[in-house]
Design goal:
The protein is of the alpha+beta class. The protein is 23% helix and 35% strand. It contains ten helices and 18 strands. The longest helix has 13 residues.
Length: 339
C-alpha cells in the first residue's frame, strides 16, 4: 500500500478496500490545518509512520499550529526530542530524563496522531492484568477489528515500564538505530496515570504503527513516556471509533536536498535530471547495487521528494518521479545541476 501525493490532493481517496471500509483518507498541506474543522472521531496525522521509521525527524508543523485541532493523541518532536502526549487538550512532552514538561508552542512535530476524542464505548477493568490481557479485552469489544480506534486508559499501573529518547541531530539515523543507541528506559513500581493510544489494523502499516501504540502521562503530570509493559491494578477504558484520517505530508524544499546525506542526494539529483527512473535504471545510472537504488528511491518517496507509480503487472518495477520535476524549468534553481 503506497501513497501518491498527487492523487491525494483534494478529496478523500481510499488506499486499500479495507482501509476504505474503516475510514476515508485525505492528504493535506500545512496551510490546510487552518481550515480543518474539529469533528469527533476524525484523526489528524502528521506524516506517516514509515517516514518516521526512515529518519524523517524534522517537524513541518509546530505544536502551536495543532492547538484546537484535537484534544487527545501522541507523537514526538523535532529530532525525536522526547515523547509527545496529548490529553484533555494539554500537550505534554516527556524529556530524556522521563520528566513531563509542557511542550513548547514553537516546537516542531515530525509525527503525531491527534483526534477530538469521541466516546463510543466505556468499561471498567480490575486486575492484576498484564498488557496482553488488556489488549485482548479491548479487541473483544471492538465493533470492527479491521477498523481504527483511539484508546484512553485511566488507571493504576503497578508496575509500569516506559521509555523516551535523547534528542537527535542530523544526519538522522533510522528509528531502529536510534532506539538501540539513544533510548532511555524507566520503571515505576506503582503509577497512577492516563495511557493515550491508538489501534490500527495491519494493512494500515504504511500510515501508522499496526496494532496497539500507547504513550502515558502520570496523573500528577510529572512523568511518562512510550509504554512498553505494565500490570494493571484497575482502570476505566474508553474506546473511540475513528471514521476519517487526514494526513499532513510535509512540503519539502531545496534546503533538505542540500543537507541530506551524499548518497541519497546523488540519487535525488539524478532522478531530477532523468525525470523518472526505476530502481534498475537508477542502479545502472549510478553503478550501484540494485538493492541500494531501490532503498534510496523508497526513502525519497517517504520524504515527499518523489512520487511512485506502482507497476501494473507483478513482475514489473515501480517508477519514481521527482517532486521537483513539476517545478521545472521556471522555479527550480539552475544551481541544483551543478551539485
Amino acid at each position: 500500500m503506497r501513497y501518491n501525493p498527487e492523487v491525494w490532493e483534494g478529496s478523500p481517496v481510499s488506499l486499500d478496500f479495507r482501509l476504505a471500509h474503516s475510514f476515508a483518507v485525505q492528504r493535506m498541506r500545512r496551510d490546510d490545518l487552518e481550515d480543518l474543522d474539529r469533528v469527533d472521531g476524525e484523526i489528524l496525522q502528521i506524516q506517516t509512520i514509515e517516514a518516521l521509521l526512515d529518519g524523517c525527524y524534522d517537524g513541518d508543523v509546530t505544536v502551536g499550529e495543532l492547538y484546537g485541532r484535537g484534544d487527545f493523541g501522541l507523537g514526538t518532536l523535532t529530532g525525536l526530542d522526547g515523547e509527545l502526549v496529548v490529553v484533555d487538550g494539554e500537550f505534554w512532552n516527556i524529556d530524556p530524563e522521563g520528566v513531563a514538561v509542557v511542550a513548547p508552542a514553537d516546537a516542531g512535530v515530525p509525527f503525531a496522531a491527534l483526534v477530538t476524542f469521541g466516546e463510543a464505548q466505556r468499561f471498567h477493568l480490575d486486575g492484576p492484568m498484564g498488557r496482553d490481557d488488556l489488549e485482548r479485552q479491548i479487541l473483544d469489544r471492538l465493533e470492527d477489528p479491521e477498523g481504527s480506534y483511539a484508546l484512553r486508559v485511566d488507571g493504576v499501573f503497578a508496575p509500569v515500564h516506559f521509555r523516551t529518547v535523547v534528542h537527535q541531530d542530523p544526519p538522522y539515523q533510522p528509528l531502529t538505530e536510534v532506539i538501540a543507541s539513544a533510548e532511555r528506559q524507566f520503571h515505576a513500581e506503582r503509577l497512577e496515570g492516563t495511557m493515550v493510544g491508538f489501534y490500527f489494523p495491519d494493512y494500515a502499516s504504511d500510515l501508522n504503527q499496526p496494532g496497539f501504540h500507547f504513550h502515558m502521562v502520570s496523573a500528577d503530570r510529572a512523568t511518562g513516556g512510550h509504554v512498553y509493559d505494565f500490570t494493571l491494578e484497575s482502570a476505566d477504558v474508553v474506546i473511540g471509533h475513528n471514521q476519517a484520517l487526514h494526513i499532513e505530508l510535509p512540503e519539502r524544499n531545496l534546503a533538505e536536498v542540500l543537507t541530506m546525506e551524499a548518497g541519497l542526494r546523488s540519487v535525488h539529483i539524478h532522478l531530477v535530471r532523468a525525470g523518472s527512473a526505476t530502481p534498475t535504471e537508477m542502479a545502472s545510472i549510478l553503478d550501484i547495487a540494485h538493492v541500494d537504488a531501490a532503498d534510496a528511491l523508497r526513502r525519497l518517496a517517504n520524504r515527499g521528494l518523489a512520487d511512485v507509480n506502482e507497476p501494473s503487472t507483478p513482475d514489473a518495477e515501480p517508477t519514481y518521479r521527482p517532486h521537483l520535476a513539476r517545478l521545472r524549468p521556471a522555479h527550480l534553481p539552475p544551481a541544483l545541476d551543478d551539485l
